Predict the 3D structure of the following.
Amino acid sequence: MDSFIKLSNFPKLLPYAQLFWQGILVTVLLSVFTVVIGFCIALILALMRLSNFCPLRFLGLDKNGHRKQRGFLAAVGRFNPLNFLATAYVEILRSTPVIVQVFIIYYGVFSLIKLPSFLMFGFIRFDRFFPGVVALGLNSGAYLCEIIRAGIQSIDGGQTEAARSLGLSQSQNMRYVILPQAVKNILPAIANEFVIIIKESAITYTIGVQDIMSAVNAVKGATFIIIEPLLVATAIYFCLCFPTSKLIAYFERRMSRGDKR
């Protein structure tokens, strides 16, 4: 296998250009679906972490109805199961490698769930693509959760007080007042997560998803050339990520104009 860069090797890659084009489409689809799934999961997790649901609150009250400050019952009364579950999810997903999560989802979860086997767009295997999207979406949700939670907490508390004075309920306040402002603040961070996912999606080739790295492996197996396909893959990822980053920076500047005094 040739481990040196040779210009004469690049023309040998032309017959496999279709594989790289297909890999680009798969990578973009993976990234888009992952961000959508991750955002939905993250929004639910962020609301769970910000909730004040303490079903055993009464155990933490003294005989006068005041909250105890110390003791086991005081801790039990402050226990929030929603916050605990969301925090555990975020910490576990953020503290384990993505490739381990992909393998657990594909070889563990989806070995028990029979997925339909058909081709999307004529070449994407659904039974490989869908587990990859689920695994990346679950991982992305853990990171986006902290972004959304920080965005919600960045909104001034006076906004909530003003909403209550207008008679809005807590859910209406969150839907019409807090979330629209929070999304505006965190949109650049969400867009940056999209760029990160474009690069992280390369890990799904290990379960047979036909992305850019899968094309590299196919070319390597057919031609015994390794460096040149990797350079092509590097250029493709750069062409996907760099313009996206500049587009994000442009919209971020446009959105921040109204905040300047």
User: Anything to note?
Assistant: The chain has a mean pLDDT of 84. DSSP finds nine helices and two strands in the chain.
